[in-house]
């Protein structure tokens, strides 16, 4: 029988995660700066970069959080200064609704195409 | 017939994609936010470089007029290149507020003693956060601010060229 | 010397190409029984010429011949021999020469291997492939000649970029190119088959090896790219949704879809049109990859020198090819209608359609995310960034139905299957996966709406694919690939959910607490080595039952001035401990990033398993033939 072996394996596997924590302890600064583009780097996030700009930006984000600003407010504040380019997650607006929508439309379209190619008989 | 329409529309859309990508080749890949009319929140405090006096940033700027802000550091090589141009602005009686970016005050003062001081006021920015308030990304950078609307009307990333100086001058003359 | 050899052999290859285009075009219009011997001969001459040219470049790199501009820009006498050699294709000019080399070698192999096929089909394939080859030859000779000379001859080269001196990165481009270029053969043959009218099961059988070969190389190529990013970039991630990475992923989705569709064509003679569309798209995506990367139109971590004239050429060439293939497709479409119209709803055919459906969706997300910013900027001047959150938001929810579907789709029968009677086996597996997920997730505070069903389903799929090894419903190669895939999804999910990260500035001697661990920076030793200054740190990471020492390094190179951080990674079967540090400007502090990444190694292993499945299938296919 294969089942008991299975269960043993599974138990060992679970134990790996026993000592690990989810990353909920990551500070909010990290979370926000991961979503910010380092404007003077090549495709790096502020979080990943060690450039002067990124280091200052981390401080700014920290200060804003200390002032009690919400994540959203900080993004708005920075977008006002640097444009939407600084945020990695494009918000839904008239410029970007197609970005979010095209894949979904294609998915529905594909689904319709399949139903035409498939019969129940 | 139906097939032809399909074919032609596909061809047309391919051509449109082609043209867009062709144009995309010429778009600059560097960061620029010249078009942005971003506002500055003038509610923070700053420290002056020479006498360590803490003041409101608001007090440095003319509420009715345009102001010029220049971000610089003694360790920044291109800043040396643009320095003569800043001195030129001073000769034209244009006030420039200097922001000393992540610098050692001693080195900064030496730098000015050696090359001349083009600034009407200098404030320090030890951690670079003040520069971010002005929407800057590094040194050197020069920003023209409208005091009335508290917004940035022009931004020059990198060392100022002679043409930039003329542009700044005409901006300020236009206003007055 | 080698400059002349390299340069002139390219011209000879171009002449051969033009001759072959004309000759094969003439031959397709007259009725002949056998392939003209000259055609094969000239093709082999062309291949040899391109090989000579490539070897000339490699030799120029090995002997550091700085009279060659490419060598001067990209090599240095101090480079180790291995990186001198790999440097020859690590740059724009050399990489295109490598593309060209693989193009012609693959064509030659095709001609040798296809002798049993219809003559018109072979001629047309030769024709289309030569069009591609001549395009690349002209491109290289006009805009990116690797044999331009510099005078006076410099005494030292400029290229010593330490980041690019990495074994994974050295072999990554050739492997990826084998994959990309393999799709060119798929493209040419499918167009040829459309014109010759021999799309069908026998063609599918013939083309399947090429699909498999490209797919295996592409998979391994992407894997090597991720491994490089993980070990060398020092950010602890393996996939950044960077445009250059996306560009390699797009043809992969398409090729994976094609790999499944071709089986339907082989077994059931269905989906002819769709197979052709996929073949054309796959190659167009591979070409666009080259365009997007080499033209500098993208913002990416991976910087490449850009020259607009190059971009214009590749773009125009790409569109000529696409418009040519679209035209050919439309005007030969009536040859493609299948005799059987629809497939039954519960059947392998439908299952594969659904697989394609998802693959196309994933593809569209990546494609739109990659090029939308370019379009937006051209059309209304606004600049936006499309980063990881976009891809995650759109892809992850769709993983749920995809995983459900993948757990039963592959075991359906051809033509018509019935809904199975309730299977106790599957119920047990499902309960087991809920139980595992429960025990894993109970330790965490994270109870996201999405992560719970995802973890459960990924375990369910994993167990189902393991269970499948005990039945005889599918081939071994399929079992291994599907098992590898479910393992990959599971590992990525667990890795993403349970990785944790410590980021702080520390001094020597300082100790910090992180979760249940204590991180201590023991020392930083400064040493001068060959061409760089090395700062080697010693960290210890302790908790109740483990003690790890990690020694990351910062290297300061003087020529050109670069600072690189070498992460230290301790890998076990269960988890990776990743530590990287950076120098800060002031006061003896170092920026320290420590990451705990569970099941990291399984991401690599599972990807290797996926390709092993493909490899098995390829071997089995060739065994049958002989």
Task: Write a brief caption for the model.
The complex is a heterotrimer of chains A (121), B (176) and C (626). Chain A is mainly α. Chain A contains five helices and one strand; from the N terminus they run αααααβ.
Describe the structure in your own words:
With 121 residues, chain A is mainly alpha-helical. Chain A has two domains: 25-89, Orthogonal Bundle (Helicase, Ruva Protein, domain 3); 92-121. Chain A is 59% helix and 2% strand. Chain A is built from five helices and one strand. In chain A, helix 2 crosses helix 3. Chain B has one domain: Glutaredoxin, CATH 3.40.30.10. A seven-stranded mixed beta sheet of chain B has the order 2-1-5-4-3-6-7. Chain B is 40% helix and 22% strand. The longest helix of chain B has 25 residues, at 2-26. With 176 residues, chain B is an alpha/beta fold. In chain B, 35% of the residues are buried. Among the domains of chain C are: 1-165, no CATH class; 401-498 and 603-625, no CATH class; 500-600, no CATH class. Chain C is 62% helix and 12% strand. Chain C is built from 17 helices and eleven strands. In chain C, a hairpin with a 2-residue loop joins strand 4 (517-529) and strand 5. The two termini of chain C are 45 Å apart. Classes of the chains: A mainly alpha (121), B alpha/beta (176), C alpha+beta (626). Chains in contact: A-B, A-C, B-C.
List the helices and strands and how they pair.
The complex is a heterotrimer of chains A (about 120), B (about 180) and C (about 625).
Chain A: H1 3-18, H2 28-34, H3 52-66, H4 71-82, H5 97-117, E1 118-119
Helix pairs in contact in A: 2-3
Chain B: H1 2-26, E1 45-48, E2 54-56, E3 66-72, H2 77-91, E4 96-101, H3 105-115, E5 121-125, H4 129-133, E6 141-146, E7 151-157, H5 162-175
Parallel strand pairs in B: 3-4, 4-5
Antiparallel strand pairs in B: 1-2, 1-5, 3-6, 6-7
Chain C: H1 2-29, H2 37-62, H3 69-74, H4 81-87, H5 92-113, H6 119-143, H7 167-196, H8 201-232, H9 243-268, H10 272-294, H11 308-331, E1 343-344, H12 348-380, H13 388-408, H14 424-441, H15 451-468, H16 476-498, E2 500-506, E3 511-514, E4 517-529, E5 532-543, E6 546-550, E7 553-557, E8 562-566, E9 568-571, E10 575-583, E11 590-598, H17 600-625
Antiparallel strand pairs in C: 2-11, 3-4, 4-5, 5-6, 5-7, 7-8, 9-10, 10-11
Helix pairs in contact in C: 1-2, 1-6, 2-4, 2-5, 5-6, 5-7, 6-7, 6-11, 7-8, 7-10, 8-9, 8-17, 9-10, 9-12, 10-11, 12-13, 13-15, 14-15, 15-16, 16-17
């Amino acid at each position: 029988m294969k089942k008991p072996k299975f269960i043993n394996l599974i138990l060992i596997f679970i134990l790996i995660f026993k000592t690990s924590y989810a990353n909920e302890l990551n500070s909010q600064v990290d979370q926000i700066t991961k979503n910010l583009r380092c404007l003077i780097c090549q495709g790096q996030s502020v979080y990943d970069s060690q450039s002067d700009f990124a280091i200052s930006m981390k401080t700014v984000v920290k200060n804003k959080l200390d002032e009690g600003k919400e994540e959203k407010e900080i993004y708005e504040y920075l977008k006002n200064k640097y444009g939407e380019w600084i945020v990695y997650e494009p918000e839904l607006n008239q410029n970007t609704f197609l970005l979010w929508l095209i894949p979904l439309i294609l998915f529905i379209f594909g689904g319709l195409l399949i139903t035409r190619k498939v019969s129940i008989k | 017939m139906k097939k032809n329409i399909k074919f032609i529309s596909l061809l047309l859309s391919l051509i449109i994609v082609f043209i867009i990508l062709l144009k995309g080749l010429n778009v600059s890949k560097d960061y620029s936010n010249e078009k942005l009319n971003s506002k500055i929140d003038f509610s923070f405090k700053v420290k002056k470089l020479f006498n360590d006096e803490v003041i409101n940033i608001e007090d440095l700027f003319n509420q009715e007029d345009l102001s010029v802000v220049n971000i610089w550091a003694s360790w920044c090589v291109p800043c040396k290149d643009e320095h003569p141009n800043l001195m030129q602005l001073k000769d034209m009686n244009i006030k420039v507020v200097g922001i000393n970016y992540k610098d050692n005050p001693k080195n900064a003062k030496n730098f000015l003693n050696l090359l001349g001081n083009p600034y009407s006021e200098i404030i320090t920015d030890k951690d670079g956060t003040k520069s971010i308030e002005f929407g800057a990304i590094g040194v050197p950078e020069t920003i023209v601010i409208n005091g009335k609307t508290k917004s940035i009307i022009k931004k020059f990333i990198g060392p100022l060229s002679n043409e930039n100086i003329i542009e700044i001058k005409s901006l300020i003359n236009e206003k007055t | 010397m080698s400059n002349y050899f390299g340069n002139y052999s390219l011209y000879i290859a171009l002449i051969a190409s033009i001759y072959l285009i004309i000759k094969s075009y003439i031959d397709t219009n007259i009725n002949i029984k056998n392939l003209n011997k000259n055609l094969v001969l000239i093709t082999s001459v062309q291949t040899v010429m391109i090989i000579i040219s490539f070897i000339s470049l490699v030799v120029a790199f090995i002997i550091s011949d700085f009279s060659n501009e490419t060598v001067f820009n990209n090599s240095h006498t101090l480079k180790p021999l291995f990186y001198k050699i790999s440097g020859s294709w690590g740059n724009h000019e050399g990489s295109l020469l490598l593309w060209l080399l693989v193009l012609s070698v693959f064509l030659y192999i095709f001609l040798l291997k296809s002798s049993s096929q219809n003559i018109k089909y072979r001629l047309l394939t030769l024709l289309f492939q030569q069009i591609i080859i001549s395009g690349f030859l002209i491109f290289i000779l006009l805009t990116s000649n690797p044999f331009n000379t510099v005078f006076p001859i410099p005494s030292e080269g400029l290229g010593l970029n330490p980041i690019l001196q990495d074994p994974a990165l050295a072999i990554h481009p050739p492997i990826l190119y084998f994959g990309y270029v393999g799709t060119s053969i798929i493209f040419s043959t499918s167009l040829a088959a459309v014109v010759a009218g021999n799309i069908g099961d026998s063609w599918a059988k013939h083309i399947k090896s090429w699909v498999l070969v490209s797919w295996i190389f592409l998979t391994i190529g992407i894997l090597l790219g991720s491994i490089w990013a993980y070990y060398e970039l020092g950010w602890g991630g393996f996939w950044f949704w960077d445009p250059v990475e996306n560009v390699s992923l797009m043809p992969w989705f398409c090729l994976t879809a094609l790999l499944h569709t071709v089986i339907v064509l082989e077994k059931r003679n269905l989906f002819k049109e769709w197979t052709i569309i996929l073949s054309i798209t796959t190659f167009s995506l591979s070409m666009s990859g080259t365009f997007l990367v080499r033209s500098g139109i993208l913002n990416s971590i991976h910087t490449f020198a850009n020259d607009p004239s190059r971009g214009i050429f590749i773009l125009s060439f790409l569109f000529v090819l696409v418009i040519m293939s679209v035209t050919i497709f439309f005007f030969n479409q009536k040859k493609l209608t299948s005799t059987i119209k629809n497939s039954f709803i519960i059947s392998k055919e439908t299952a594969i359609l659904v697989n394609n459906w998802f693959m196309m969706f994933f593809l569209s997300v990546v494609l739109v995310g990659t090029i939308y910013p370019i379009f937006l900027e051209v059309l209304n001047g606004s600049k936006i960034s499309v980063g990881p959150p976009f891809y995650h938001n759109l892809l992850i929810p769709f993983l749920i139905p995809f995983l459900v579907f993948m757990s039963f789709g592959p075991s359906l029968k051809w033509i018509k299957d019935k809904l199975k009677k309730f299977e106790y086996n599957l119920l047990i597996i499902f309960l087991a996966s809920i139980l595992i997920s429960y025990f894993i997730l109970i330790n965490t505070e994270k109870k996201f709406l999405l992560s719970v069903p995802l973890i459960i389903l990924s375990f369910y799929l994993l167990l189902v694919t393991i269970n499948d090894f005990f039945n005889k419903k599918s081939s071994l190669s399929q079992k291994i690939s599907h098992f590898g895939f479910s393992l990959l999804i599971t590992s990525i999910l667990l890795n993403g959910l349970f990785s944790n990260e410590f980021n702080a500035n520390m001094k020597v001697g300082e100790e910090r607490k992180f979760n249940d661990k204590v991180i201590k920076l023991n020392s930083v030793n400064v040493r001068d080595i060959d061409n760089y200054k090395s700062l080697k740190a010693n960290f210890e990471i302790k908790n109740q039952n483990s003690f790890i020492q990690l020694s990351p390094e910062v290297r300061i190179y003087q020529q050109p001035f670069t600072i690189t951080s070498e992460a230290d990674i301790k890998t076990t079967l269960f988890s990776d401990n990743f530590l990287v540090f950076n120098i800060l400007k002031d006061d003896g502090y170092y920026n320290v990033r420590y990451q705990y990444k569970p099941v990291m190694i399984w991401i690599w292993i599972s990807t290797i398993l996926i390709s092993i499945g493909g490899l098995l299938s390829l071997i089995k296919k060739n065994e049958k033939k002989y």
